[in-house]
Amino acid sequence: MTGIRLHAPNPGWAVDADVVVIGSGVAGLTVALRCAAAGAKVTVVTKARLDDGSTRWAQGGIAAALGEGDTPEQHLDDTLVAGAGLCSDDAVRALVTEGPDAVRRLIATGAEFDTDADSGKILLTREGGHHRRRIAHAGGDATGAEISRALVEAVREAGIETIEHALVLDLLKDAEGRAAGVTLHVMGEGRRDGVGAVRAGAVVLATGGMGQVFSATTNPAVSTGDGVALALRAGAEVSDLEFVQFHPTVLWLGPDAEGQQPLVSEAVRGEGAYLVDADGHRFMAGAHELAELAPRDIVAKGIMRRMQEKGAEHMYLDARHFGAEMWAHRFPTILAACRAHGIDPVTEPIPVAPAAHYASGGVRTDLRGRTSIAGLYACGEVACTGVHGANRLASNSLLEGLVFAERIAADITAPLPEPAPVHAEARTGAGTPMAGQPPADLIAPELRVTIQRIMTEGAGVLRSRKSLEQAAAELDRIALEADGKAGPGTECWETTNLLLVAQVLVAAALRREETRGCHWREDFPDRDDAAWRRHLLVTLHQDHTFAVSRTDSAAFPPVNPLRPQGVRREHP
Questions:
Q1: pLDDT digits (tens, 9 = 90+) for 417-473
Q2: Which of 29, 246, 357, 427 sits most deeply, having the most CB atoms within 10 A of its CB?
Q3: pLDDT in tens, 338-358
Q4: DSSP annotation string for 369-412
Q5: In this predicted model, what pLDDT tens digit does every residue of 178-236 receive, in sequence order?
Q6: Residue 337 maps to which CATH number?
Q7: DSSP letter, residue 257
Q8: Which residue from 167, 242, 174 is spatially nearest to 6, judged by alpha carbons?
């Protein structure tokens, strides 16, 4: 059995399920609800509380062709343009055609979007890269919080088993190499504690992103790349990891600000805010036909260029013309965050700068969310479905989570042949869950800040061969100097995951010698379709080296024709 595992104690307890979902954002909870509705026994594992995932932080909204005159075809066109030649046409078409009904099902689940007081129709706004108003929002700028509330309530009402405060460790496999569950560590809460196992015929990774690999990010503290790291150790393919989207307008809190930073939603620009420099000049006007509403990679680059020209640490977002009433009604969350940091956007421009925001790449999947390991699925930010290409279109992420979660649930719960026998170690939860697989040396938690600094300096918005080679060397040094003294524990496991995804990201960014989407190489400033309109696939060898290969084209073919075994069928 191939793969690498984390150093961890043997599981001291085990539970059985048909489906184990790792993560409690829009993607994970939608999979759980749909599978449970089809009769499967589902267990949801989440790293903090059930409502603490990345979804709750989403401000702007969810994109879908819901408005008059808008069509899925127009949504598709905008998505393909933003993706800079690397989107899968089939994946995007599935997203935009199935998206409107998926949103309606979300509303039926209990999510309440902002509506017009007279007509009752859903209010729609615009964001970067969209040529139409197609962003549905809730609570003004609290869309993610409302979606999370509705899904969490539905999961609790459905009686779905949940394990909170649990860090997933590694994948269990059966004798044929199929996914058979996961090991996890529960952090001293509830009925279970310490390392255990959830044995299941289907495993769904919905662990969110890896923004914490950088010093400043909009991602919550739980976003440490755990799902991508688990998949790599298990032998799965990851793709497009070099395409990390830096949100253009993150509240600038000073040069030494670290960790999760307050986001200033793109919807603020969608409602008419301007990007200006210290002299009040609108530098995006004339730089792109959509000015401040150009795709995010273009706006982020525009801000960085202006910062370089002016020798400035940030630019400004000017929305003083909104007035106090609009700020309070439309953007109450952002208004409160700004004022908490001593900035009043009603009377002064908001200082902003790009920060790590979204991973367009991840664990490679087909159109049903299947990875290259049978029975292992991925959806949401942890996945690379082919929807986002080289740059995610604003507010497509929540929609992707919905649409592909439903596709995964349909695949998992379709009629199956009789289940194959589970590997003894996975079945009993005794002994070493991944026997024969070499453990990865754990990285001391105090090196987390060092990894983040290395990534910010060498693989941030601006990249070059020199910066990436320096980052690769420093990360390799950390890995080589791991001496086995760091003992098992949550902080060590997280730091080990961060190092792994950082190394893979840098390896891919160094290999891609062009500028495309949110991958900006200063030494290769042009897009090169002849050589680079293709994907980079990365797998991890047992000796901890990486295999980085290029696909023949931008096509994203199915990666695995096999379905999981052992999912119970209790259809009504």
A1: 444 444 433 333 333 344 445 566 899 999 999 999 999 999 998 899 999 999 999
A2: 29
A3: 999 999 999 999 999 999 999
A4: -B-SSTTEEE-GGGEE-SSSTTSPPTTHHHHHHHHHHHHHHHHH
A5: 999 999 999 875 567 799 999 999 999 999 999 999 999 998 888 999 999 999 999 99
A6: 3.90.700.10
A7: -
A8: 167
**Of the candidates 387, 349, 356, which has an alpha carbon nearest to the alpha carbon of residue 369?**
387
- For the chain, how far is it from start to end, CA to CA, in angstroms? 37
Q: What are phi and psi of 494, to 5 degrees?
A: -65, -45
Domain that holds residue 482: 441-550
Residue 446 lies in a domain: yes
Q: Answer yes or no: is 25 within a domain.
A: no
> Given 233, 269, 296, 306, which residue is catalytic?
296
**Two tokens, residue 182:** 């996961």
Considering the domain boundaries, does residue 540 fall inside one?
yes
Contact (Cβ atoms closer than 8 angstroms) between residue 150 and residue 294: no
- Whether 59 contacts 263, CB under 8 Å: yes
Report how many domains make up the chain.
2
Cα separations in angstroms, 236 against 228, 386, 423: 9, 16, 19
296 is catalytic: yes
The percentage of residues in the chain with a pLDDT greater than 70, rounded to a whole number, is: 91
Per the DSSP assignment, residues forming a β-bridge with 199 are: 16, 181
